[in-house]
Amino acid sequence: MTSTANPPSPRASRAHTQRHHRRGWLFVAPFAVVFALTFLAPLVYAFGLSLFRDQAFFGGTVFVGLGNYTQALGDAKFWEAFLRVLLFLAVQVPIMLLLALVAAFAIDSARLHAAGFFRIVIFLPYAVPGVVAVLMWGFIYGDHFGLAADLNHLLGRDVVEPLSGNWALTSIGNIVTWEFVGYNMLIFYSALKVVPPDQIEAAAIDGAGALRTIVSVKLPAVRGAIVVATIFSIIGSFQLFNEPNILRVLVPNVITTNYTPNMYAYYLSFSGQQYNYSATVAIVMGVITAVIAYAVQLRGKRKEM
Amino acid sequence: MSLYLLYTLIPLVWLVISATKTQPDLLSTPGLSFGGVFALFDNIRQTFTYDNGVFLRWLGNTLLYVVVGAGGATILATAAGYGLAKYRFRGRQAVFAVVLGAIAVPATALAVPTFLLFSRLGLTDTPLAVIIPSLISPFGLYLIWVYATDAIPDEMMEAARIDGAGEIRIFLAVTLRQLVPGIVTVALFAVVSTWNNYFLPLIMLSDPNWFPLTVGLNQWSAQAIGAGAQPIYHLVITGSLLTIIPLVIAFLFLQRFWQSGLTAGSVKQ
C-alpha cells in the first residue's frame, strides 16, 4: 500500500498548504486555550493588579501607576530576600551542576561497574516529592532524633546545628542539591550518549587521554545541555519556596516570612492581604528571572560558535 | 562515586528504618539502627486509619489529580507538539516563541495571580483549581515537538493521505505509535510533577478533604509542633515512605522507555 507513494508533487503540496493551516491549529488549539487560561490570563491579571493599591481606610482600590514598583525597588525586605537567593544561586548551582557533570562523565566512561545501577540510584531523589525530601531532611537535621542529634551526642556537645542562623541556607542548599543532582546528571548523560563513538575513537587514536577526550570532545557536546540545566537551575533558585517554607515550621525565628522573594510574595498575599503589592513582587521577580535566563542563553549560544 | 552513592542513599535508608519504629523508639534510638519493636505494619495501619482515614482520602485525591492532570497534560502536549512539528501553519512561530518563553517564567511567580484569578471565577477550593494549571506542560510540548520531528517521516503521512485517511485518523492510527517513547517520557515527568506538586494545592485549597498527599503530610508534620501538640512523627515518616514508593516503582519499571525518550530528545540540541 505505501509502496505506491511517490514524493508529493509541488502542486499537491500547495493544495495541502491550506489544509495544513487548518489541521495544524486543530492539534495545537486545545493546548493553546488552556495555556491562555493558565499562563497568559494570570500574567495580564497580575500586571493589572500591580497598578492599583488598596485603600485600607477608605475601602476600594486606587490607581497608582508604577507606584508599587517604586515601592518594591526601595523595599529593604524584598532586597534582603533577593540577595539571599542570589547568594544561594552563586554557590549551590555550580556545586550541583559540577557534581552532576562528574557523575554523568563517570557513568558514560563505562569504566564504572554497574553504571545502570549508579544512574538510577543517583536519579532516585528526583522521584521523592520535595515535601517529603524536606520533611525527611528536617528530621535528620533536627535535634530531637535526627542524625545531627546522634552526631552531637557522639561528640558530646552541639557541634552540628544545621538549622541555626548561620547554617540554615547551607542546609537548604544541601537539600536542593540532594534532590536535583540526579535530574541534571540525566540531562548531561543523554547529551553525552549522542556523541558519535567514532569521534571518541579518533581522539584515542590521536593519543588523547581520558581527560583530554573529555575536554575536547565530550565537553563541547554537552555545552547545550549545560546551558539548559543552568537556566532551569537559575529559575529554580529564584523561585525557592518549598524547602525554606517547610523548614520554617521548625525554626520560625531563623527562616523569616521574607526569607526568599517567593515566600515574601506568598505571605504578602495570604497573611497580609496585600494582593496588589504581592503581584508586583511576583512580576519583578519574573522579569529579573527571565532577563537573566535570556542572558545565559545568549552567552551559551555565542560560545558555541 | 561510591561516596556520592552513600550521600544519596543514607536519607532514604534512614526513612525506611525510621518507618519501622514506634514513636517512643524514634525519640530514643539512634537514627540508623532499628528500634526495639518492628512496628512497620502497625505504623502503616495507623497511617491509614488516623483521623478517620484521611490519608486514604489524600491518596485518592492525589491519584485524581495525577490521572486527570498529568493524563490531560500528556494528551495536550502530544497533540500540540505533533501539530507544531508536522504542519506548517500561520502563527506556528508565535506559538513556539510564547511557549518557550513560558518555560522561563517561574511557575510560582504566576501562582499567586492564578489564585486570585481562579478565586474570582469561583474555582478555588475545588479539584479543578489544581487540575487546570496541571494540564499545561511547556517542557512536554517541547520534548514531543523535537521527538516528532525526528521520528515521523513526512512520506509516511503523505502515503496515508493518498490512501484517503483524514488528519485525525493519520494521527491516531499511523503516527501515534511512533511517538510512544516520547509520550511515556512526557507522561512520567508530568506524573512526577503532579504527584509531587505542593505549592499550587497549598494556595488553592483550604479544605483538607481536597488535599493531596504532599499538603496533607506537611499539615501532619506541622501539627506536631506547638503547645499541646500531639506529635505523630511516626505517621509522617511512614506516610512519606508510602508517598515515595509508587513513583520509584514507576521509574524502575519504565526505565528503558523514558531514558530512550530523553536521549532522542537531546539529539536536536
In short:
Chain A has twelve helices and two strands, in the order H-E-E-H-H-H-H-H-H-H-H-H-H-H.
Description:
The complex is a heterodimer of chains A (305) and B (269). Chain A has 305 residues and is an all-alpha fold. Chain A has two domains: 22-63, no CATH class; 70-302, MetI-like (MetI-like fold), CATH 1.10.3720.10. Chain A has twelve helices and two strands, in the order αββααααααααααα. Chain A has a two-stranded antiparallel ribbon. In chain A, strand 1 and strand 2 (61-63) form a beta hairpin. Residues 1-5 of chain A have low confidence and may be disordered. With 269 residues, chain B is mostly helical. Helix content of chain B is 75%, strand content 0%. Chain B has 14 helices and no strands. In chain B, helix 3 (40-86) packs across helix 6 (127-134), helix 7 packs antiparallel against helix 10 and helix 10 (180-195) packs across helix 14. Chain B is elongated. The mean pLDDT of chain B is 85. Chains A and B meet through helix 1, helix 3, helix 4, helix 5 and helix 6 of A and helix 1, helix 2, helix 3, helix 4 and helix 5 of B. Chain A: Pfam families: BPD_transp_1. Chain A: Keywords: Cell membrane, Membrane, Sugar transport, Transmembrane, Transmembrane helix, Transport. Chain A: It is a multi-pass membrane protein. Chain A: This is Multiple sugar transport system permease protein. Chain A: Residues 82-296 form the ABC transmembrane type-1 domain.
